[in-house]
Amino acid sequence: MTVGMGSNPTILDSQTAALLASVAASGNPPLYEQSVDEARQGLAAFSLAMAPPSRPVARVEDGSIPGGGGSLSVRIYWPIAKATRDKPATLLYFHGGGFALGDLDTHDAICRHLCDDGYAVVISVDYRRPPEHKFPAAVEDCYAALCWAAEETDILGGDRHRLIVAGDSAGGNLAAVMALMARDRHGPKIALQILIYPVTDMDPAYETPSRRDFGGGDYFLSIKDMVWLAELYAVTRTDLATPYMSPRRAASHANLPPAIILTAGCDPLCDEGKDYADRLQAASVPVTYKCYEHTIHGFISFAGGIDAGKDALAFLSKRVRSDRNL
Predict the structure, then answer these.
(1) Closest to 125 in 3D by CA, of 151, 143, 150, 112
(2) pTM for this structure?
(3) Annotated catalytic sites, by residue?
């Protein structure tokens, strides 16, 4: 399907086009016109309807650990034992949803997939969300979870040498920030950062061709949505420029862990994901960059209906499973 955007026609795959047509036909108001509670409920329902097929795991436990502001909820997934002497990787997953909207349940299927197919102990982090808890609450919670996981890896049964941070969208932002914070604070050694269509600059005024071409509201995520979410997250406009909110603005990207960065070609965030990959490579950080050109933001969460999402999950799982020298 070809969708015209001015003089730059864009080819969407048929499954993505069908999903967007369904969203448009629903008549639901855009995200930025909803209350936070309405948006949370809508994302939860949509995530459940479009989630990838659930994968079997050995066990799942909900628990709490010390967080940046007190007790922090986590959900831990253990993989089914395999005929190998290798320990599973230890992977912290930070959910997307614009910082304010997602939760452990919206990303349960993704975590199960990475646990089973990626052969990893997955720790999904229920960080504090805005507007109830503004920046840097989410960041400090995620860093507390990272430090806890690094200390408890042996008890959890994971490989202490293969500590991975991963996330999608806002969670991709948090994973990138964890890599920066761990370097700056001389914290845990991260073996790999997995950034799935990450937002790397939270300033809605930051301009890129992909924000211009795909941010009008026809491709799921809009610039107006991003403005609303940034206002929920930031305390002041000055916050938008800090590297722990906008990791592309870090003074240096040297000495960071290797990265896998996935983007969607019809996503307002596509260009900043590629820009971040370029910045890491320029700082001599090993990077694998892959763009799924014919789909939209959130496509991995929609893997129940978009084959590109299934392909991306399989690609990431294979890297987590097979990269023994991270």
Answers:
(1) 143
(2) 0.95
(3) 169, 267, 297
